[in-house]
Amino acid sequence: MGEARKLRYAIIGAGMAGILAGIKLKERGEQFTIYEKADKLGGTWRENRYPGLTCDVPAHAYTYSFEPYPDWDAYYSTGAQIQTYFEYVADKYGITPMIRFGHEVTSAIYNDATATWTLTFGNGSSVEADVVIAASGVLHHPKLPDIAGLDTFKGPAFHTARWDDSAPIDGARVGLIGCGSTGIQIVTALADRVEKLVHFQRSPQWVMPVPQFDYTDADREAFRKDPALMDAIRYNDEYLGAIKRFTDAITDIDGPLMQQIEDACLQNLENSVRDPELKEKLRPNYRAACKRLIYSWNYYDKVQQPSIFVETGGIERIEPTGVRMKDGTLHELDTLVLATGFRADRFIRPAVVKGAGGVCLDDFWAVRPRAHYAMTMPGFPNLFMLNGPTGPVGNFSLIDIAEQQWNYIEHLLDELRAGRARSVQPRAEAFEDYEERRIAAAKTTIFGSGCQSWYLDGEGVPASWPWSYEAFAEAMKQPVMSEFELAA
Ligand code: NAP
Predict the structure, then answer these.
(1) This prediction's pTM
(2) Which of 2, 10, 74, 175 is 20 to 30 A distant from 169 in Cα terms?
């Protein structure tokens, strides 16, 4: 049994999860630094600034559990206000000074002899740490469509996570490729601004109707005076019940709860869209919630406006003046927006990560990104991931998921802090057993019911937690220590 010791922690990424890790370590008086490639914190909320960006988790539930926020403008908040929230929290908890901006991790190499990690940065500097917390995000690396002629378009053409504020939008002819959560939100925001928006839709979406309303000054004052009012929204039976029903439905795809989701989406389409031709264009041919379900209060209203044209034909190529369809039609455009999603298999990569004995992360992830309960990996001691591969995904708060993951990680860190081990990693057999069970269950979830989405890994298996929310919460209470190898 060694001595208790002070660890040096390197947190990669100053988004929601990295800030969380910083707050939790600071509370315990630990020494840590957050390395951030950009010049601003916020992660996905820093990168995404497209018109219409809102979070489809109720604002009072999309906060850290320990830092409710009375100032939200609306039930579903805008991306801009969420960015403000993270900046506020990072300042309030003294995290901002702990962030080294402009530090993109290019490699993380484990040294077996010292049980330490060396991180090297794009600026050439490097640092040694005992523990690495990878909080580097999921939907992070834009995926551009493989369409001929994309680089010949003479107007602005950009991915949604690289919004070009100088591009013509108001009174302009805009093309929008992609119909995920992002594309749908952009349609709702631009319908009243453009002369014309052509929405190139390869697959339509199921849309769950949800209420949206602004909070008034009086509401905010009331939240400030009585924080229990915010808890009442966050822990509202209806909202928590909806999460539970959602996760139960996606894991019991022929059960009554999934039927309710399907019925609600179908009724929304039937009752909201008047033109029969448009209705058929917008009718998906796969099951609801197979792709990430769209929660929207105004998409069907906006898509029926005369300024919006839903183009369901195949794209032949992009030309200097617009998009040429396979049937020969040319849509002439001033601006082209690519809402084509992200490479969801990257995580900490392209950083080169080498673990014990020089094992490469790229090799370990050759078939699919994977990790024990989405956080730790055999061969990569003292490396912990927040919102890493195969964690829970769906229409609920990833802040809550990260907080629960942090709780699990703390138990493992305690082994190192107490000096009971210099390194901790999951046992290969325990991990393989877990991953086998996970894959078998994942194939039976709604995400594996026969549609294309970013939820699927390269082998077509849903890359997600495949069990209920309660099972996740239970698993996160503490690790099963016999599944871990502790080395002195
Ligand atoms: P996405 O869901 O991956 O959607 C990409 C879209 O681009 C799909 O409609 C896809 O069509 C289309 N596409 C891709 N390549 C194409 C091509 N070559 N030609 C034509 N269409 C093409 O990406 P996203 O909309 O950016 O959303 C990603 C995730 O971000 C969401 O699922 C969600 O988790 C998160 N998000 C959340 C919110 C929120 O409110 N909380 C808002 C925005 C984003 P197919 O479907 O046919 O493949």
Answers:
(1) 0.97
(2) 74
